Amino acid sequence: MSLTTCNVHFSQQSNKVVYLSSPLLKKLKLSGKKSVRLKLGNEVINAEIKQLNRPGNHLYLSAGIRQLIKVPKSGNVYVLNSGENEVQLGPLVGILSDNGIRSESNPFGGRTEFIKQIIRTGEHKAYLFGFTPNDINWQQETINGYFLDPQGGWYRKIVPLPDVVYNRLPNRKAETSASINALRERFVRRKIPIFNWSFFNKADVYKLLDNDPEALDHLPESVSGPSMEKIKEMLETHQFLYFKPTAGSLGIGIYRLTYHPKRGYFARYRKGSQNVLLRFGTFSGLIRMLQAKHGISLTHYVVQQGIRLVEIDNCPIDFRFHMHKNGKNEWVPAGIGAKKAGRGSVTTHVKSGGSLMTPEQALKTTFGDESDAVLEKAKQTAIKLSEAIERNYPHRLGELGLDLGIDKDGEIWMFEANAKPGRSIFKHPALRSEGRASVSYIFEHCMYLSNFQGQGGNG
Ligand SMILES: Nc1ncnc2c1ncn2[C@@H]1O[C@H](COP(=O)(O)OP(=O)(O)O)[C@@H](O)[C@H]1O
Ligand SMILES: [Mg+2]
Atom 12 in ligand 1: which residue has the minimum CA distance? Predict the structure, then answer.
């Protein structure tokens, strides 16, 4: 296997000949050969080859060839000698997303800018495009992809099925539909890697890790669909609990439940733009309130041991670890944001008054000189947790957003793992370069998954 870049030119001949400059011919071990198997995504054709006496790595594709293999554009791209007499252009990388409202100029809604960033990172190296479920033609095995022009506008090109799919479908509900399930299975059946598979539910993640001692060390005690007796028992053991909807996000529907033997039961939650604190003399009073508000949907809740987080000015702080798999298939913490809860708020979400800071700022108050060591320990734990989730999960994972807490003793706890993590931490001025690194990891991991690797790593 050898990986190099070449400059692809489009020529107007209608024949099916590929011209290669002599240095490229040599690098791809095609000297003296008459024909080659040329691949792009899942498309393969046989083409006659001819040598061109020109320095540098150049490849000329005639109109006849282009029509067959659907190379989207001229210019620099990776080329891989992927077997005896076989050459692959690309990789061809598809980014799967959608927009509630169909719109040609804004095909991916709020994700459009992020998808543009990924495509730009791979510019002059690979063929990256965005697409929605409706753009796939399974009969022809093609996709009508959205490519980015140098001015930042979209243009459409029909290309073969890609070498790898990065899944950023935005909608939790749509993702569990039969049609999206079938779509993912169709990629898998064709051996096209797709990551990540879907959103996670909190209860699913806790269950996944239930037999993984390494991860269990860092999970607060959690029970899905708890009975009322269980909640009471856990309140007596831990004095405070988090009660969360299993498919929730953004802190919506979360309660912080506390028990004081003398003063009774307390429930804290967010209502609109207000923080509410209710007191109940009896446990059944507390439960009646929850049942009146949620009824049967309480079965889709998890109850979790509360963790006494590090604080600044009495406001708890937790951390988002944005994890990626890199070009060597290893987990790396690409960016870490610290989130301080708004005063009186149950969660640290910015929408409920929380604020974002760097992990260094957040840890200094509590740990002083020990901060670096605590942060390093948290990073190692985040890697271990990502590996644990991956080894217990039946589908492919390449990115995770871990919500971690650090308690006053410096112990690390995981509250939640997100398989489609948001990117708001990267808006912090101090985390912009981490944001760019995160996008690079996505591209590097696509290179890895599509086997575009030379003998000594990426060319
Ligand atoms: N067991 C817990 N102990 C202490 N704080 C918690 C606990 N669970 C959640 N939190 C706080 O609430 C926030 C939101 O919880 P999380 O599980 O991430 O739900 P969501 O999906 O709504 O983001 C966390 O980031 C953390 O600040
Ligand atoms: Mg969260």
Answer: 347
Task: Find the range with the poorest average confidence among 55-64, 155-164, 259-268, 296-305.
Answer: 296-305
Proportion of the chain above pLDDT 70, given as a percent: 99
pLDDT of residue 459: 39
Between CA 167 and CA 399 the distance in angstroms is: 10
Beta carbon of 308 within 6 Å of any ligand 1 atom: no
> What's the CA-to-centroid distance between 205 and ligand 2, angstroms?
13
Taking only the tens place, the pLDDT of each residue in 203-212 is: 999 999 999 9
Q: What's the CA-to-centroid distance between 406 and ligand 2, angstroms? A: 15
Is the minimum distance from the CB of 251 to ligand 1 under 6 angstroms? yes
Kindly state if the Cβ of 220 falls inside 6 Å of ligand 1: yes
* pLDDT surpasses 50 at 457: no
| Average pLDDT of the chain to the nearest whole number | 94
264-271 and 142-148 strand pairing:
unpaired
Q: Encode pLDDT of 268-311 as tens digits.
A: 999 989 999 999 999 999 999 999 998 888 889 999 999 999 99
Of all protein residues, the one whose alpha carbon is nearest to atom 2 of ligand 1 is 306
Read off the pLDDT of residues 71-123 as tens digits, 9 standing for 90 and up.
999 999 999 999 889 999 999 999 999 987 777 778 999 899 999 999 999 99
Measure 125 CA to ligand 2 centroid, in angstroms. Answer: 35
Please give the Cα distance from 71 to 431 (Å, whole number).
36
CATH number for the region 221-305 comes to 3.30.1490
Domain ranges, ordered by start, for the chain? 2-90, 92-195, 202-206+210-217+309-449, 221-305
Question: Is the CATH number 2.40.40.20 carried by domain 2-90?
Answer: yes
Q: Whose CA is nearest to atom 22 of ligand 1?
A: 251
Q: Is the CB of 200 under 6 A from ligand 1?
A: no
pLDDT for 181-207, tens place per residue?
999 999 999 999 999 999 999 999 999
